[in-house]
């Protein structure tokens, strides 16, 4: 079947590949650009039943809330149909220092004797009317409290297994910032349902060939079941195969393996030890001899895995490390082995093709960059979509598309580079010397020049907004601050102490946060109770608010 359009018809988008990347992009573009149901674009997604979804349980960044809301997905529906729970940040164990020799393996939340830990919360550092607290924390105004505990109450809430909101709070809004953990396969099914409801055409089939025209752009896709398919814009969501951007268009892959060593993972899903077990509302990332384990709590099970460097260990040892971390619940369960290469295409938009998701690039799941990059791509494609006035000849169309591609590639390329810096920050500040993996990660030769320069500056002043170009960044200054000072980085502000004259105000702010923490703990439900209530009844305002809305 060849896709045909009448004279003056809508622009056509063909998305190749499903999964989270394909269906999130399809749903967002359908909502933003419109479809045939609303007189907008003509969007088709083709996927093969022979190709599975890579996801083994996913984490996200808080931007996913605005993306889902923009698509029009009810938050309670998303939570139920994706087996989702809430995520308030990442709890890092044993990254700064090796565990004590006599320390037992731990899965406990919060502080555990013999293990170093810190928290990267999603809330920004507290500031109401007082001064910015970071300089005063560096100068000792908060005593010996770790940075994240001093400037936000979110760590105390998460350590207590409280949710970030209540069932009476509005969808996608809460007292505390949050994202989600979810089942990737179930999310893809939900996004497919919503995209089709919005007017996306769904084809099941296999793309056998990509035919290029004389200029090197995609002329058509040849499929086994539907013949030739054509479009104005092709979106490659074919995962690591990168069938269009890599195999057909030959866009080189830019590896980052000399900076980020991890290239494999073993994953295992396990049940809770009892049905009413607390659900952590953060990802637990525990460092080991040649990588780190993730531990994600869904409503009915845990998603766990060990991300590691094949240069520093082997698959059998990696499986042993993961099983030891999990304990008895791992017995009799098979692990799933995943191989990957950290890096990205040196161009993401070429001619009339854009790569989204794994086809464009991939980094280990540390800090959940995968879904965020899909979101960014979908937003940018919607913003840059080459509508063009009617009557453009092919040369004008190609010129407009080329200009769009250059802008897109500059922004996306810079974003990938900055992510590399942020991920490396987690490793290069370690004081661990107990294995070659950690010694190599701390080697200055493996640190990008851009990050090395920033660290030199931050030795004498904390990270600030002028260190970052907003449109290039996935992680804002607060995230760098949480990781820097969680890892024990030293910023010497003593020579500038005279500039910070509001020490008493800052002490008052620090004390105020400690004072309101018990109130926050008492007002927020347990994470499991919140999830189960929302699954049953959704988000519902209290009766008084409901009555007021009817008047």
From TrEMBL:
Binding site residues for FAD: 18-21, 207, 358, 371
Annotated L-tryptophan binding sites: 367
Residue numbers binding 7-chloro-L-tryptophan: 87
Keywords from the UniProt entry: FAD, Flavoprotein, Nucleotide-binding
Pfam families reported in the protein's UniProt record: Trp_halogenase (PF04820)
Keyword Zinc: no
Protein name (record): Tryptophan halogenase
Species name: Nitrospirillum amazonense
Classification via PANTHER family: FAD-BINDING PROTEIN, FLAVIN-DEPENDENT TRYPTOPHAN HALOGENASE
Upper lineage: Bacteria, Pseudomonadati, Pseudomonadota, Alphaproteobacteria, Rhodospirillales
């Amino acid at each position: 079947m060849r896709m045909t359009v009448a004279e003056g018809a809508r622009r056509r988008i063909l998305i190749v590949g499903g999964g989270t990347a394909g269906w999130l992009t399809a749903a967002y573009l359908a909502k933003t650009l419109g479809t045939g149901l609303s007189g907008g674009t003509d969007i088709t997604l083709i996927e093969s039943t022979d190709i599975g979804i890579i996801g083994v349980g996913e984490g996200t960044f808080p931007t996913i809330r605005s993306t889902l809301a923009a698509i029009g997905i009810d938050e309670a529906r998303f939570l139920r149909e994706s087996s989702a729970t809430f995520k308030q940040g990442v709890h890092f164990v044993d990254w700064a220092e090796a565990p004590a020799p006599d320390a037992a393996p731990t899965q406990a939340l919060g502080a555990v004797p013999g293990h170093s830990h810190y928290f990267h919360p999603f809330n920004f550092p507290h500031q109401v009317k007082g001064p910015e607290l970071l300089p005063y924390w560096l100068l000792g105004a908060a005593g010996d409290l770790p940075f994240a505990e001093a400037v936000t109450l979110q760590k105390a809430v998460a350590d207590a297994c409280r949710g970030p909101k209540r069932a009476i709070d509005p969808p996608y809004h809460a007292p505390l910032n949050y994202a989600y953990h979810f089942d990737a396969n179930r999310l893809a099914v939900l996004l497919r349902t919503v995209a089709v409801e919005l007017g996306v055409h769904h084809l099941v089939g296999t793309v056998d060939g990509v035919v290029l025209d004389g200029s090197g752009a995609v002329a058509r896709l040849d499929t086994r079941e539907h013949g030739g398919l054509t479009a104005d814009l092709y979106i490659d969501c074919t995962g690591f195969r990168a069938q269009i951007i890599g195999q057909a268009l030959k866009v080189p892959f830019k590896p980052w393996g000399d900076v980020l060593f991890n290239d494999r993972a073993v994953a295992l899903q396990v049940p809770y030890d009892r049905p009413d077990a607390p659900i952590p509302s953060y990802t637990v990332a525990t460092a080991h001899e040649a990588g780190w384990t993730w531990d994600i709590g869904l409503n009915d099970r845990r998603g766990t895995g060990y991300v590691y460097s094949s240069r520093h260990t082997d698959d059998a040892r990696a499986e042993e490390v993961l099983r030891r971390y999990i304990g008895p619940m791992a017995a009799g369960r098979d692990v799933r082995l995943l191989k990957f290469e950290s890096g990205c295409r040196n161009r993401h938009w070429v001619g009339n093709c854009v790569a989204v998701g794994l086809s464009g690039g991939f980094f280990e799941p540390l800090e959940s960059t995968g879904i965020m990059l899909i979101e960014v791509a979908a937003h940018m494609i919607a913003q840059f979509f080459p509508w063009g006035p009617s009557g453009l000849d092919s040369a004008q169309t190609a010129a407009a598309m080329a200009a769009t591609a250059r802008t897109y590639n500059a922004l996306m390329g810079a974003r990938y580079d900055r992510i590399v810096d942020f991920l490396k920050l987690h490793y290069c500040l370690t004081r661990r010397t107990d294995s070659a993996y950690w010694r190599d990660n701390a080697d200055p030769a493996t640190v990008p020049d851009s990050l090395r320069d920033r660290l030199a500056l931050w030795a004498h002043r904390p990270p600030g907004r002028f260190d970052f170009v907003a449109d290039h960044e996935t992680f804002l200054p607060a995230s760098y601050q949480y990781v820097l000072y969680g890892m024990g980085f030293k910023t010497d502000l003593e020579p500038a102490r005279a500039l910070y004259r509001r020490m008493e105000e800052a002490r008052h702010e620090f004390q105020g946060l400690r004072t309101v923490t018990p109130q926050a703990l008492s007002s927020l439900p347990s994470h499991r109770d919140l999830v189960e209530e929302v699954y049953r009844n959704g988000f519902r305002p209290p009766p008084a608010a409901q009555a007021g809305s009817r008047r």
